[in-house]
Design a protein that fits this description.
about 35% helix, alpha/beta, seven-stranded mixed beta sheet
Length: about 450
């Protein structure tokens, strides 16, 4: 049987793969693994449950809370909140674990169940495997006063907002900022916290109806944000995704500022304040070469990890670093969060613009984004890629042609028979040409 947990929890189409029955069974298994097996003083475990506003979150949260309470877990129902808010509240409440119901940037028919360990941290593979194994084991079924209680976490959003405000190095008075909330989980708290920080806020994509999440708005659809920034003469724009664990930005001229550029701006800001641990930024192998060049010139070291924010987090924890992220906009400020937080990131971008008196365009311009071409070669034996001598020779030849002003990355997909060919170069034409020629070698040498 295929592994149930993917790269970020259990995801699928709600009411097809992700049924109420599966949600309840997962919550009962998690109650054992993350709750009862970790507690040795006889008390009931405590969990925080939150969701994004997609319509299926109602029946999935009901099933999860029923499963937890029936398994002797006291549940704090935090309602609709961003994923990083749920993680923060698990830590702030000193809960034993948390559950976030969201499919992030995916469309409304999809949903997902993500578990958080004590402290609001993502689960490692061993804990996910233990939960899967517990699905087949007898459930814990207390009776009488030993069953759990479900209570509304009345001040959940207020706690999160206060936490965000306390993280800011300076206020945002006098700034005009457009927020695109993707009709998602940040629709309430993001405008409120930016207003509280002193900004004049223009809000789009903040009327969730359960089925419009990520639909034409948010970090995967930036056109409306770009237009709104220009129409309103704003200093910048911030785009969240459905569960607000990531952030992309738009400068005052309507140009997109991606996750790599955001990391460059934030790493420099922390270094200037003497707050960047070991002057090191953690980023994935997919980050643009321009980020590495800019950080080297700024005296900042980059530690590379595999693709995925969980691997960025692992790299940060291993080295004790406090800033990391991905090109997609997952930026992790370890001094303030245990996961990517799009609202936190947006606030700190704005704070840097305010404190320096420079535009976001000028700040992001410290990094030159090199043209990057990515081609997915399908129907190939991805396992043979690392040892194929003709492919190795073709990559070496491409690297010689690029020199220090470009790079090649071949990465087998983790879930399908696909090899991803990525080339960066000083010109789009060179990147495209080399990526296509390497893709032809992959197809010729590794076809199934």
């Amino acid at each position: 049987m295929a592994r149930l947990f993917g790269t970020d929890g259990v995801r699928g189409k709600a009411n097809e793969l992700l049924t109420p029955e599966l949600a309840m069974a997962l919550s009962q298994a998690a109650a054992m693994v993350l709750g009862h097996e970790q507690i040795h003083d006889g008390r009931r475990p405590v969990a925080v449950v939150a969701k994004d506003p997609r319509i299926s979150g109602d029946f999935l949260s009901a099933a999860i809370e029923a499963g937890l309470a029936a398994s002797g877990v006291d549940v704090h129902d935090a309602g609709t909140l961003p994923t990083p808010a749920a993680a923060y509240l698990v830590a702030d409440l000193d809960a034993d674990f948390g559950v976030m119901i969201s499919a992030s940037h995916n469309p409304a028919p999809d949903n997902g169940i993500k578990f958080l360990a004590r402290g609001g941290k993502k689960l490692d593979d061993a804990l996910e495997d233990a939960i899967e194994a517990a699905l087949e084991k007898p459930k814990y079924r207390p009776v009488g006063g030993d069953v759990g209680r479900v209570t509304r976490f009345a001040d959940a959003e207020d706690r999160y907002i206060m936490h965000l405000l306390q993280s800011l190095p300076n206020r945002l008075d006098g700034m005009k900022i457009v927020l695109d909330c993707a009709h998602g989980a940040a629709s309430g708290c993001s405008p409120e916290v930016f207003n509280a920080a002193g900004a004049q806020v223009v809000v789009i994509g903040a009327t969730p109806d359960g089925i419009n999440i990520n639909d034409g708005y948010g970090s995967t659809h930036l056109e409306r944000l770009q237009a709104a920034v220009l129409d309103n003469g704003a200093d910048l724009g911030i785009a969240h995704d459905g569960d607000a664990d990531r952030c992309l930005a738009v400068d005052h001229e309507g140009s997109i500022v991606d996750g790599d550029q955001i990391m460059a701006v934030m790493a420099t800001a922390l270094k200037d304040r003497g707050e960047l641990k070991d002057n090191t930024l953690v980023a994935t192998v997919m980050s643009n070469l321009g980020l590495k060049i800019a950080m080297r010139e700024a005296g900042i070291t980059i530690k590379e990890t595999g693709v995925g924010d969980r691997y960025v987090l692992e790299g940060m924890r291993a080295g004790g670093y406090n800033l990391g992220g991905e090109q997609s906009g997952h930026v992790i400020f370890a001094d303030h969060a245990t996961t990517g937080d799009g609202v936190l990131t947006g606030l700190h971008i704005a704070a840097r613009v305010k404190s320096t008196g420079k535009s976001l365009k000028e700040l992001a311009g410290a990094m030159t984004v090199l043209p990057q071409v990515l081609i997915n070669v399908k129907g190939v034996d991805k396992e043979a890629a690392p040892s194929n001598q003709k492919l190795i020779a073709a990559i070496a030849a491409a690297e010689v042609e690029l020199g220090e002003k470009g790079r090649v990355l071949l990465r087998p997909s983790g879930t399908e028979p696909v090899v991803r060919v990525m080339v960066e170069a000083t010109s789009l034409e060179v990147a495209q040409s080399l990526a296509e020629s390497l893709s032809e070698v992959v197809l010729k040498e590794l076809s199934l």
